[in-house]
Amino acid sequence: MTELQRQLQLAKFYRKLKILVVDDFENFRLSIKQMIRSFGVERIEVASNGEDAVARCERESFDVIICDYNLGAGKNGQQALEELRYNKVLKHTSLFVMVTAETSKDMVMGALEYLPDGYITKPITKAVLQKRLDNLVEQRETLKPINAAVDKEDLDLAVELLDKEIKSNTKYVTWCLRTLANIYYQKEEFALAKKIYENVLSKRDIGWARLGMGKVRIALGENEEAVADLTGLLQSNGNLIEAYDALADAYLNLGKAKQAQQTLEEAVAISPHAIMRQKKLAKVADDNRDYESASDAHRKTMKLGFNSVHESAENYLNLGRCLSDLAEGDPTEEGKKRAKEAVHTMERVAKKFKDDSNVRMSAALIEARVHKGQGDERKSNEAMAKAEKVMNVADADPQTALEFAKTLYQMGRASEAESLLSDLAAKHASNSAIISQIEELLDEPVSLKQKAKARALNKEGIGAFEKGDLAGAIKVFEEAMVVTPKHPALNLNMIQVMLKQIELQGGNPELKRKCQTCLENVKHIPEQHRQFKRLQFLIKKVAAL
After folding, report:
1. Is the Cβ–Cβ distance between 535 and 496 less than 8 Å?
2. Spacing of C-alpha 275 from chain mean position
3. Contact by Cβ (8 Å): 402, 437
4. How far is CA 472 from CA 145, 169, 457, 509, in A?
5. Which of 222, 274, 389, 462 places its Cα 20 to 30 Å from the Cα of 66?
């Protein structure tokens, strides 16, 4: 095809297009309209902000969206694209072109993470815009049948069309191979996806193929191999952000949570504006009991959620929970600062989600714990009364019920908390996630510092037992039980050590009495608890003494 023939064909393409121009400045919208009208586009709509752009796209289809990154107050261009993709409003046959004057690396990386079809920096000239759009529109028209099949979720047809395009050896072969591998991955046909990546990598070392290979290995359970692949990839291309996410997943699958957290921290240092990665980092840091890092990630998740499709009450509540735990028993200026931030955050979430009674209850319960942890009994009781005024345990969702139980523990109402958790366990016996949270709360309903101390002592006691130092193990376990007297694993560990001591020494009334005390300490655990069977076994052993 000659250049003249190409231009004539492009002119036909442009006449059929419907384009949306999004920018908060009218002069820029007019300028872009004039440019693309000169290309032959006849149907051009405009939007002045992100909310309007999303609403327009929900009502009508556009072939091309040209959107500025900065859109004043409200959603920015990245958040508009994120919402359109998340809600599957933006079709695969449509093009989204991001325009920005931003040049900072974190802004650019953040925008690119949501995969715009094009990215153009200001100032924009007609020549630059036409060159970029010509290439994108030409590709769109050539690959339209494939993307239309994907939009209809007819993946078998998409595979058939991709195979045909690959065999014709057009200039879009690389795109087709990458798309085909992604479709096989979506269909969980991992062996076929792996074969494509292997074929591509046998000819050339390409980042997307190495990343795809790593993800396929994870899906196949080859996590050690995935770690090696992805680590090598990041050494050669440290800005391939998605590779950090995959590597973190591989580490988590291997039980290496600390390495996963470090990997995610490296990723957010490069691209800090991706809310779902910050949310994931917060959870991993929480699980690692690195509450300093977790609070920072929760705070960023909450801020990134403003105007985002991913904004939720949980973003606020999670920050409040983390700050409450950190501030508990900390009378320093830093502790007071965290407590103040937690209370302020709870006031904001209660106001923002005022129609959700579960959110308002949770916010009041967290606030009660914050004040209690800072030694302010009056404010703590006021917040608790506010929560109980609207609290209906029977109607509350499981997370709010757990929040209530945690607060009851901190208010010194342990028996009420245990009764609530027992009822909750029976009600949600088949939900492993809820049962796990119930167990954790039953096991250690104490502050962060106390948890850390009890865990260290429990580990020390197990070590002494394994070395045969039974008296030493009993002494350490007794010290740990001062901190967490009703911890099931701790009490049952203590019983096992004492049973061994009784076996070696013969009858020992004092140890028998202590065994009974330990059994009494854990009689509250429900049958769904992971230690319940062990408890039943030891009850029989103690009874047989």
Report:
1. no
2. 8
3. yes
4. 74, 74, 11, 19
5. 274
User: For position 282, what pLDDT does the model report?
Assistant: 98
Contacts of 419 (CB under 8 A, 6+ apart): none
Tokens (6 digits) for 319: 């920050």
How far apart (Å, rounded) are the C-alpha atoms in residues 259 and 284? 10
- The label of the residue with tokens 């409200």 reads 74
β pairing state of 18-22 and 64-68: parallel
Nearest-10 crossing angle of helices 414-427, 432-443: 160
How would DSSP label each residue in 108-150? HHHHHHT--SEEEESSPPHHHHHHHHHHHHHHHHHHHHHHHHH
What is the distance between the alpha carbons of residues 183 and 356, in angstroms, rounded to a whole number? 39
d(CA 314, CA 323): 14
Q: Is pTM, for the whole model, over 0.90? A: no
Kindly provide the b/e burial profile for residues 249-265, where b requires at least 16 CB atoms within 10 angstroms of the residue's own CB: bbbbbeebbebbbbbbb
The contacts of residue 183 (CB under 8 Å, 6+ apart) are 150, 155, 158, 159, 162
Taking the alpha carbons at both ends of the chain, their separation in whole angstroms is 94
> 65: which DSSP letter?
E
Ordered alpha helix ranges (H), 397-447: 398-410, 414-427, 432-443
Q: Provide the residue count of the chain.
A: 545
Q: pLDDT tens digits, residue range 301-350?
A: 999 999 999 999 999 999 999 999 999 989 999 999 999 999 999 999 99
Dihedral pair phi/psi, residue 330, rounded to 5°: -110, 100
Helix/strand/coil for 386: helix
**Amino acid identity of 56?**
R
Minimal CA–CA distance to 146: which of 164, 128, 131? 164
Instruction: Tell me the domains of the chain and their CATH numbers.
Output: 3-153 (3.40.50.2300), 154-270 (1.25.40.10), 272-412 (1.25.40.10), 448-543 (1.25.40.10)
Closest CA to 345 of 326, 283, 333: 326
pLDDT along the chain (545 residues), means of 10: 81 93 94 94 95 95 95 91 93 94 72 81 91 94 95 96 92 94 96 96 93 97 96 92 96 97 96 94 94 96 94 97 93 95 97 93 96 95 90 84 93 90 89 89 77 85 91 91 88 92 84 92 88 92 88
Collapse the DSSP code of 250 into the 3-class scheme (helix H, G, I; strand E, B; otherwise coil) and give the result. helix
